[in-house]
Amino acid sequence: MSGSAAPGGSSSPGDRRTGAHWFEDLADFVGPAYLRYSFTKGTDQEVGFLVDALGLSKGSHVLDVGCGPGRHARALAARGCKVVGVDIAERFVRLAADGAPRGAAFVRGDARRLPVRPAFDAVISLCQGGFGLPADPSAPDDDSVLDAMAAALRPGGRLALTAFSSYFLVRHLEDSDTFEASTGVNLERTTVKDGEGGESEFDLWTACYTPRELRMLAAAAGLRVLGLWSVTPGAYDRRSPDMEHPELLLLGERVASSRLPEGPQVGGGSSPERRRP
Ligand SMILES: C[S@@+](CC[C@H](N)C(=O)[O-])C[C@H]1O[C@@H](n2cnc3c(N)ncnc32)[C@H](O)[C@@H]1O
């Protein structure tokens, strides 16, 4: 796993367990050692920035999509938010739930078909948390992921997601990268370390984006763009998009008349009949 970017991937999408996302093999292997990677070390700064940008306060209902071991969800719950974390990797869901603070709940699920009730005050998806990790790298379907996240918001609710920057990736292409120009998906072959000194090779597929693509996807999902910035993990800032920072951070707001279908089940915002995390 590279130090600056949050990736994905097993040996190949074709040899993974039937129906599983390729990231699950990586999560099973790396386990808690995921939190040793440098890009996970700036959680406090990221959460402080997001609390302000998303207008969160005690009691806000937040959905963390592709939550991994729950570092943002747990930090937000510690600040008094009610957080539901969703991740496709069972191992990460178990790690997230283990010893989680009051107010944080975790569930296994797919970002494209979120197992949550709508009306969250905010949705976050950080370090390619489901957005930008295509299950089928030949046909990225991040539009479905963004639609599902927008549908989980109450009207006026806010979304913050990060996506890997195409500009940065191409400008700083490394020997281990193979960038597919027609899909915008980068394949990186990398060595991942577990916590016991073990190493394994993984292929990581990351769908990369330009600022214009993110704006267009956001509009199609019924989101008004409030901000779009170039950021580095652990150093979120309101910096105009450039080619020197690895991630783009999109801040959007669900417009009242969104065309989106509403999803089923867990958690959710302000309706009294909804099950709380
Ligand atoms: C690089 S990790 C980021 C985790 C966390 N957001 C963070 O910032 O540390 C990407 C996460 O997205 C999850 N993921 C990938 N595709 C997903 C999908 N379709 N639905 C739900 N989770 C997904 C992976 O299992 C993994 O935990």
Summarize the structure.
This protein is of the alpha/beta class. The chain contains 7 helices and 10 strands. Strand 2, helix 4 and strand 3 (104-108) form a beta-alpha-beta unit.
Protein model, in words:
- This protein is α/β, with parallel strands linked by helices.
- It has a single domain, classed as Vaccinia Virus protein VP39 (Rossmann fold), CATH 3.40.50.
- The protein has helices at 23-30, 43-54, 71-78, 90-97, 142-151, 166-171, 211-220, and strands spanning 61-65, 82-87, 104-108, 120-125, 153-165, 177-180, 185-193, 199-209, 223-231, 247-254.
- α2 crosses α3.
- The longest helix is centred in the N-terminal third of the chain and has 12 residues, at 43-54.
- Choose one word for the global shape: globular
Return Rg in Å. 17 Å
What percent of the residues sit in helical stretches (DSSP H or I)?
10-25%
The CATH topology label is Rossmann fold
- Tally of alpha and pi helices: 7
Oligomer: single chain
What's the SSE blueprint?
Elements (H helix, E strand, L loop, with lengths): L22 H8 L12 H12 L6 E5 L5 H8 L3 E6 L2 H8 L6 E5 L11 E6 L16 H10 L1 E13 H6 L5 E4 L4 E9 L5 E11 L1 H10 L2 E9 L15 E8 L23
Parallel strand pairs: 1-2, 1-4, 2-3, 4-5, 5-8
Antiparallel strand pairs: 5-10, 6-7, 7-8, 9-10
The structure holds S-adenosylmethionine (SAM).
